[in-house]
Write a structure and sequence with these properties.
The chain is mainly beta. The protein has one domain: Jelly Rolls. It contains no helices and nine strands. Strands 1-2-3-9-4-7 form a six-stranded antiparallel sheet, with no helix packed on it. Strand 5 and strand 6 form a beta hairpin. The protein is globular, with a radius of gyration of 14 Å.
């Protein structure tokens, strides 16, 4: 279960390296894989060549920049949202100009 937080300025949370050209501000996380973060992909970053699948629910809201789904051949920008069930195929992705997103993850079994 995630810790409780009242409103706080997100810019007080330090950016940390998330690997592969990405950085993150972790806003809240739980011991069972729950995570809320702001993720930033530097210009030219890609997720690799493989379609992505994972075992958690994921919600993504694009805040800035653009992200291209190479399988779909579509580019998405600010104000666009995705909700993915565990195992749902998506990507791979690439960003030419960089992008920033709000990402929320929670386990497939919401009881933990």
């Amino acid at each position: 279960m995630k810790a409780e937080h009242e409103f706080f300025p997100v810019d007080q949370v330090a950016w940390t390296d998330a690997g592969g050209g990405t950085s993150q501000r972790v806003l809240s996380e739980g011991h069972d894989g729950e995570l809320t973060r702001i993720a930033h992909w530097a210009p030219g970053t890609s997720s690799g060549d493989e379609v992505i699948r994972h075992e958690y629910f994921e919600e993504v809201y694009l805040l800035e920049g653009s992200l291209t789904d190479l399988t779909l051949g579509k580019t998405f920008g600010p104000g666009q949202y995705a909700a993915r069930r565990p195992g749902m195929p998506h990507g791979p992705y690439r960003t030419e100009d960089g992008c920033t997103m709000l990402e929320i993850r929670y386990p497939a079994d919401p009881t933990g």
